[in-house]
Specification:
The complex is a heterodimer of chains A (about 325) and B (about 475). Chain A is mainly α and about 325 residues long. Chain A is built from 14 helices and no strands. Chain A is globular, with a radius of gyration of 20 Å. In chain B, about 35% of the residues lie in helices and about 20% in strands. Chain B has helices at about 5-10, 50-55, 100-105, 115-130, 145-160, 180-195, 205-210, 235-240, 285-300, 315-320, 330-335, 350-360, 380-390, 410-425, 435-440, 465-475, and strands spanning about 10-20, 25-35, 40-45, 65-70, 85, 165-170, 200, 215-220, 225-230, 260-265, 270, 275-280, 310-315, 340, 345, 395-400, 425-430, 445-450, 450-455. In chain B, the strands form five sheets. In chain B, strands 5-6-7-3-8-9 form a six-stranded mixed sheet, sandwiched between helices. The chains are: A mainly alpha (about 325), B alpha/beta (about 475). The interface between A and B is medium-sized, with 27 and 42 residues.
Chain lengths: ~325, ~475
């Protein structure tokens, strides 16, 4: 069993989610329905998108502390400009994606630590969001609202969206040729550069993808909540990092799993609901959520601590 | 130019190429041309300029003076001209599979189905170079052993990758391979050159160079000091040309009285005080693992002791050895900081004195110990790791194939130092892939399939004896 888990890294996140889901259904059987599941996982969709964004950055051995602020900004733009002047809104969102790509290129070119640059940029994004939407408000574009609240037959929208996000990200990052090269940048950037690739462009591409998924996360969030606020998604920064790690990703070495990242985001969302069903005081919920995270990580260490190489590794 | 002349045009031609790093002239006016069908053996001691020459040829460095041309292909970049390099330090992406690593250097693989094409191409090349390799192309590289990784790297170097492979540069390709696999490589290189390819073969194992090369180029201090067909060289002549008077005769271990047993493990590995114990056998049969278990078992505790019981000399420098962001000085002193720290603070004067002392004793070639460790050549980095271990007071020294990619002269110096330290009562456990090194030990454990298959002492330590113990079961 241990071999099985270490060979297929995706199993542990899957099992964690399944266990938590069974526990939730046991605690609150009424959630075991079309609408119940939709309610449980509704807010997981923007978190899953933000987690994929974070994963694109962690793929190239960087970390992004501005995801939360960036998603908030994208949400504010969606709730105001995109709703009022669609053409301008699309242009602004596209330039946000481009700004992310430029940020990646600058980080690579000047050899700056991504953690510092993104931390600084989070204040810029936050400031811009306040500038666009000083007080909570705005409105969701109608098409976005109806997309996010649509009710496909049999399977709730939240589940459909999660599967689509996971599949698209998997195709893009794991299956495609360019995705493989991007993961190679995280694994051994020097060898990628020696093979003739312009690493600066690859980094810009990785950051650009992160920007794209960040914008999508903001849009999905507005579609669900119908309005925005400059601080609406601040907690996404840490949630997205936790989601990537829960899903079997690692901080270094370009080891990531898009499917795992989506599952990680679902698990985190479900953990919050599960704790409410336990009637745990909200004061303790954040701590309990952290405890769940640590337990899953410990389980992973137990399963993956192995020595396949002859050298052992000192 | 006629087609025939085109055929015989040099693949790469260097004209007075020079490269300086600050005041250091790493490459000092080298002219060289390599034609199809040639296998050029490139030898020289550490820091002679081999790596710089290779990097100028493959486009990794642009020369500060002189020219690099690719007449055969008419291209102006090494990659387009079909020049490939297989580097000494392993340069695969560990998180990708074998087939995905091929994709990194083969950008023409695209569109749906590229995976199948990549798998087929790398499997074909692996089969051609290393028949019976047993490597699954869907395995992530991090799960492969070091020898298998090197095999994959070599195979990627020779893979067609959608163009003509004209010149493959192999930098110490056999340093992690055992003899049987190295022979397969030598055979393939010969076949590759017979079919009109060219190879630059860099190795410290002179036997291999003689076996594979059609022409040998000797470098010293950034200059080419000899460039002749292989038939014009003798082994001794080659060593002389490199500028080292290496004693070819192996210093036989003198029988001595050893102290009490200081190491004994469950699987039978044992060593007495003052003894040099060798671990041998085919590469990857559990020697490194046995050493790692022994070392980690003896040293991993909550509190580091002021007087460590065991120190470790890494063979895989980048993974287990050097601290790449630190200076040479700090890389030497990290192991012994406890000895001269007062109230938890480092005594910088004592630290500098110790490092300076070891720089002289072991001969680290650098102008300033404050330079970054990566400014040193591979062999000199290894010397730093030796200095780190020997500077401590630990009575037991564990060495995991530490001579990988180290030149003959340095090796002789280190052998002498090991013997001297052993005579003073230090114990060495030494895993080596080179049989003549193991033959210098007082006692040898031969490993096979993760277990000790033979313990040899005294006169029984011979190449034949070791080989017999390594292969016994496989013959039956």
């Amino acid at each position: 069993m241990r071999r099985l888990f270490s060979k297929y890294r995706i199993l542990l996140p899957l099992v964690s989610l399944a266990l938590l889901l069974v526990a939730t259904f046991y605690m609150q059987p009424r959630t075991m329905s079309y609408f119940g599941v939709n309610l449980l996982f509704n807010l997981a969709v923007p978190i899953a998108l933000a987690t994929i964004a974070q994963m694109c950055i962690m793929m190239v051995e960087d970390i992004d502390l501005s995801v939360g602020a960036f998603v908030s900004l994208a949400a504010c733009v969606t709730a105001t400009l995109l709703n009022d002047q669609p053409a301008l809104g699309v242009a602004v969102l596209a330039s946000l994606v481009a700004a992310y790509a430029v940020m990646g290129a600058v980080i690579h070119r000047l050899e700056l630590p991504a953690i510092v640059v993104t931390l600084g940029m989070s204040f810029v994004w936050g400031g811009l969001a306040l500038f666009i939407l000083p007080t909570p408000g705005g409105a969701s574009p109608g098409w976005l609202r109806s997309l996010m609240t649509s009710t496909p037959p049999m399977v709730p929208m939240a589940v459909v969206a999660s599967v689509v996000i996971a599949a698209v990200a998997h195709l893009l990052i794991i299956r495609s040729g360019i995705g493989t090269v991007l993961r190679g940048v995280g694994g051994n950037a020097r060898s990628v550069a020696r093979a003739g690739w312009p690493v600066i462009r690859l980094k810009a591409l990785a950051y650009g993808l992160a920007g794209l998924f960040g914008v999508l996360a903001g849009m999905a969030l507005v579609g669900l909540t119908t309005s925005a606020d400059a601080n609406i998604a601040l907690r996404y920064t840490l949630l997205s990092i936790a989601g990537v790690i829960l899903g079997g990703g690692e901080f270094t070495g370009g080891k990531i799993s898009p499917v795992g990242a989506v599952i990680g985001a679902l698990t985190l969302t479900l953990a919050a609901s599960f704790l409410s069903f336990l009637r745990l005081s909200p004061d303790w919920q954040i701590g309990a959520q952290g405890a769940i995270l640590i337990i899953v990580l410990m389980a992973r260490l137990l399963f993956t601590r192995r020595n396949t190489r002859d050298g052992g590794g000192i | 130019m006629t087609a025939e002349a085109q055929d015989n045009a040099p693949i790469v031609a260097l004209t007075d190429a020079a490269k300086s790093f600050g005041a250091v002239r790493a490459l000092d006016g080298v002219s060289l041309s390599i034609r199809p069908g040639e296998c050029l053996g490139l030898v020289g001691h550490n820091g002679a300029g081999k790596s710089t020459l290779v990097n100028v040829v493959n486009g990794g460095l642009s020369p500060t003076a002189g020219r690099v041309d690719f007449p055969a292909s008419g291209a102006n970049a090494a990659l387009v001209a079909g020049v490939r390099s297989v580097f000494q330090e392993l340069s695969l992406c560990p998180n990708l599979t074998v087939a995905e690593n091929l994709r990194i250097s083969h950008s023409a693989l695209r569109g749906p189905g590229w995976r199948r094409a990549a798998r087929a191409e790398i499997a074909r090349t692996l089969d051609a170079v290393f028949p019976g390799h047993g490597i699954d192309t869907e395995t992530p590289v991090e799960e492969l052993g070091i020898a298998e990784r090197q095999m994959v790297e070599i195979a990627i170097g020779f893979a067609p990758r959608g163009q003509d492979v004209r010149l493959v540069i192999l930098d110490e390709p056999t340093s992690s391979l055992d003899a049987a696999i190295a022979d397969q490589l030598v055979a393939y290189v010969r076949q590759f050159c017979a079919q009109g390819g060219a190879v630059i073969f860099i190795s410290h194992m002179l036997g291999e160079v003689f076996a594979v090369a059609s022409r040998i180029l000797v470098m010293r201090d950034g200059k080419v000091v000899a460039d002749r067909p292989v038939a014009d060289f003798t082994r001794q002549g080659l060593v002389d040309a490199m500028g080292h008077v290496a004693d070819d005769a192996v210093v036989a271990a003198v029988a001595r009285d050893f102290g009490p047993e200081v190491v004994r493990t469950d699987d039978g590995l044992a060593a007495r005080k003052g003894e040099v114990v060798g671990l041998s056998g085919l590469a990857g049969h559990g020697q490194a693992r046995a050493l790692a278990q022994l070392y980690l078992g003896a040293t991993s505790a909550w509190r580091a002791r002021r007087d460590p019981q065991m120190v470790f000399v890494a063979g895989d420098r980048t993974r287990d050895g050097i601290l790449p962001l630190w200076s040479i000085l700090r890389n030497i002193s990290i192991g012994v900081l406890q000895q001269f720290s007062r109230r938890g603070l480092v005594d910088h004067t004592a630290e500098a004195a110790l490092a300076e002392d070891w720089k002289l004793r072991i001969g680290i070639r650098t102008g300033d110990l404050a330079n970054n460790i990566l400014s040193l050549s591979g062999g000199n980095q290894q010397k730093v790791l030796f200095a780190r271990a020997l500077a401590s007071t630990a009575p037991v020294v564990v060495m995991d194939d530490p001579m990988r990619g180290v030149d003959v002269g340095t090796k002789q110096g280190v052998y002498a130092m090991i013997r001297a330290e052993a005579a003073k009562g230090r114990t060495f456990l030494w895993y080596s892939t080179e049989t003549d090194e193991v033959c210098q030990c007082d006692r040898v454990f031969v490993f096979r399939n993760g277990q000790i298959s033979a313990e040899l002492t005294g006169d029984a330590i011979t190449e034949e004896g070791i080989l017999r113990a390594s292969f016994e079961m496989q013959e039956a």
